[in-house]
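To the team - flavin-adenine dinucleotide complex, inputs and output below.
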Amino acid sequence: MKERKIMSGGEFLVSDIKQEDVFSPEEFTNEQKMVYKAAFDFVKKELAENAEEVEKKDETNVRNWFTTAGELGLNATDIPEEYGGEGMDKISACLVGEAMGGANSFAVSHSCQTGIGSLPIYLFGTEEQKQKYLPKLATGEMIGAYCLTESGAGSDAMNAATTAVLSEDGSHYLLNGEKIFITNGAWADVLTVFAKVDGEKFTGFIVEKGFEGYSIGAEEAKLGIKGSSTVPVILKDCKVPVENVLFTIGAGHKIAFNVLNIGRYKLGSNAMGGAKFTMATAVKYANERVQFGRKISSFGMIRNKLAQMAIKTYMTESIVYRLAAAIDDKMGTLDEAARKSGEEVAKAIEEYSVECAITKVFGSETLDYVVDELVQIYGGNGYIAEYPAERAYRDSRINRIFEGTNEINRLVITGNILKMAMKGKLPLLETVSAALEEISAYDSSAFKKDSPLAAQEQILKNSKNIFLLTVNTVTQKLLETLQEDQEVIELLAEMVIEIFVMESGLLRAQKYLGTKGEKKAELQVAAVKAYCADTILKMAGLSKNVLAFAESGEALEKLIADVDKLASAPMENTIAFKRAIAEKLIKSKKYPF
Ligand SMILES: Cc1cc2nc3c(=O)[nH]c(=O)nc-3n(C[C@H](O)[C@H](O)[C@H](O)COP(=O)(O)OP(=O)(O)OC[C@H]3O[C@@H](n4cnc5c(N)ncnc54)[C@H](O)[C@@H]3O)c2cc1C
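Output:
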């Protein structure tokens, strides 16, 4: 098979990406499928149908699940074999994340263990630190946690008040402060804790639960994910040996931000898996519940909900595995020494900080959409705790808050795109002039019809041009004040998200069409057509709101006319597409792609 081109971060905004350069889930290897099956079987047997037991938050149960997960190689997906891990590729690691999406709130405990609980040590630890902690985190003998948040330092994580002062004999640091909302906190044996050395230099430390001066507070009473532990961690002259400083003094931000990049795309895989499990619950109920003498799954409005669930999940799946493969490809370019250096690995992943943030935002919002419609399909029963919809609805909500709130992630998306453009890493402004010429010559009546997805290819191209036209106006008119115009930043981020999502779904469907033919690819094509039809209208709306803020008078009228021209795509029969998708979902009783 031809090798995929290595993508650079944000490149999708300025290039026509080819289908052969994008990985899609139809290409999983047998080995990757086996990884998924092992994780899925574990989740199904022990966790998915065991929600009440999970909710008890019983430490013995939790430790047993971690031990079993460890025996199956599911705790240390990203950790190299020399430290007791599996050294999986990122696609496989996301497959584990996807399967865990059905594990109820153990999913949160587990993703903490495999992510923020162990990655700081793997990526930034010394050889001794890695040897000491990682093998035990891999088997589940140790449970990991990550302490960044404080009452005054949430989204503004660098504003930490926790301090670290070197002891007189230079043998240890004394940490003082309180961390809040710490996942796995009640059970954690080893924690990455951030504190400011001498009140200034933001630094990571490895803290063990037995260290003098370490304690935890009471469990938080939460809206959802009640089977996960969330406690404050209290540090009162907590004695941390100097050999437990993680990485470089004053470079804690590197640990914090890089670990978040990984956490974000993993959260996307988890949410997507959760959406698939939820969809199966929804369709089962819709097939059983009878009103007006008919199964409710026969009503058009219910079918529309089921179809929308499936389409959004298909799109999430497309971006998750496209990104995971892009990271794997990038890792493949590292030499042996670089691959062994966690810092280099983190840098390779940082290339895709925008795509990681997109996957987090789109995945979490897809799951929220799916669980919301699950409640609606359950009707009154959806509101009653005895039924699964109520818990799913509450459990999902946290995903928009942790790993950086979705607002912070939207700031990252627009901010990093503009930063890359300013630094000359992404030829955004260079592409604008070509785009403007293309827009002025563009004839909207000349939509291509030479293949089933030709119109959607044009819609994607036009969406990119709408974005470029908008960003051009923003850079000319608003750049200096943009920081304070967050509404504009948010609208731009939304446009970037939709372009990446549409493109990923489209290239995947085109590839499937090319290899399997029209009949087999019918549903994927339907999903992409329905999604693109809605999204081009959304793109126009997002753009016009920005333009009306930045421009006025004739200049605005001209821009709006250009956007309208680009957004006027031939109307598709979206109802028929969604019906076909719902039909398959109702028959197969699961995610239909
Ligand atoms: C169940 C749970 C588990 C958690 N697990 C962990 C953990 O294991 N380790 C850990 O360190 N932390 C953890 N957290 C903390 C979590 O990461 C933070 O809650 C999150 O980062 C938001 O911080 P905050 O709660 O202080 O909200 P704030 O930062 O106060 O935000 C409040 C609102 O303001 C918005 N906002 C803030 N700044 C901006 C801005 N610049 N522009 C626009 N909008 C803004 C936010 O998006 C949000 O909508 C957990 C939280 C919960 C609830």
